[in-house]
Amino acid sequence: MLNMADGLARLGDLAASPVVRTLAEAFATAGHDLAVVGGPVRDALLGRPTHDLDFTTDARPDDILRIVTPISTAQWDIGRAFGTIGARVQGEQVEITTYRADSYDGTTRKPVVAFGDSLETDLTRRDFTVNAMALRVPDVKLVDPTGGIEDLVAGVLRTPIEPAVSFGDDPLRMLRAARFSSQLGFSIEQGTRDAVAQLCESLDIVSPERVQGELTRLLQTDDPVAGLRVLVDTGLIERFLPEIPALRLEVDEHHHHKDVYEHSLTVLAQAIDHERRRHPDAEPDVALRLAALLHDIGKPRTRKLEPGGAVSFHHHDLVGARMARKRLQALRYDGDTIGSVSTLIELHLRFFGYAEGAWTDSAVRRYVRDAGDELERLHILTRADVTTRNRRKAARLASAYDDIENRIAELREQEELDAIRPDLDGNAIQRILGIAPGPEVGRAYRFLLDLRLDEGALGEGEAERRLRAWWEAQDQPPRHA
């Protein structure tokens, strides 16, 4: 529970920090107001770590830049059109924004900016009451015109003004409601939640890049499942990731299968748990979390009701990988993330063949080769994909995966498993076969790579003998260089 005495003391510490004190004095000397605003104030009251500092002021962008230049080591004005100037002060990155109100005209994808002269008015135009508090400096006065303190104590997300008006100003705030419900562990006030369900179509005017940014921030929280449930239950996720609610497959009285939607959320939660235990100091792995969430999105398209009550999802891994690639491209994710997620989805079933019977060394090598740079993520995703309540089955699968990881480690010690190459490279293939660069070299290379995976290192002499024998058996004669 929020302890107000401790929270106010932390606000005093925030105001006394070198960066805040330096900026406060500079703006006061220039005759302008300054306040720390939003997340840093909220987090200080909650006793959470504060990160990037945001300030608001009555000064216009040109004046902000003039004031901060002498006291900062760097400045940037990429957000000038929105009233924001960035700077590095006392070694910290800060952003200072003119009092403003963002709104949409209902058709464009970018906010329309209007500058204001009142801190209180600026605060009422922000997303939620818990983010609509400011700390005036240097006089250290908390400004809370919309009841943010009360909502912090209650653990509630509420818009400072009518939710329909607030979400009309910036529909992305609906996505932020889901993100903050996960980030802070707060519930969403019913009227605010109802407005999300009623206005979800208005999210369509927001650019894919901004939507992707909020989805990413949600996935980076400790418990994204809570926010994802908000998105699904309100229908908002239908506007940008409809594959998730589609996982709620109908079950008839004759054909039964696990709830794919609930399974996917459980896999996401378990993947995060594995991620933390295996890499406790690492940043949240967005690609892994996306793969965990999306790994079964191919099931609705591939579901087949079999005789006798069985249900099959043949090739849902391949179908899902293609679907994920298309969806993530639409959301403007970068190529590396898209490649990682689609590879993980395509390979997420591969291990379960190992659990049915021990693989040869060749099969283990192929598993490592196909996973490539995604091997560690694949380890985590595959372990997380075990959601059975049958303890004996779960233990058997965990033991099988322990075994495959141990075998990979043993093979890695014996041979350079992460960089498996044929015994002969492309130049050697051309020289031995007397051929020029072309498709035949690629086919020969793949033949030698398969030998390497199946039998391990052969040595150049044996590899050359096998290559010549393979080449003699081919239909076409060699083309001499």
Automatic annotation (TrEMBL):
Gene3D superfamilies: Beta Polymerase, domain 2, cca-adding enzyme, domain 2. This is CCA tRNA nucleotidyltransferase. InterPro entries: HD/PDEase_dom, HD_domain, HDIG_dom, NT_sf, PolA_pol_head_dom, PolyA_RNA-bd, tRNA_adenylyltransferase, tRNA_CCA-adding_enzyme. It comes from the Bacteria. Coiled coil: none annotated. Its cofactor is Mg(2+). It holds the Pfam family HD. Residues 260-370 form the HD domain. Keywords: ATP-binding, Magnesium, Metal-binding, Nucleotide-binding, Nucleotidyltransferase, RNA repair, RNA-binding, Transferase, tRNA processing.
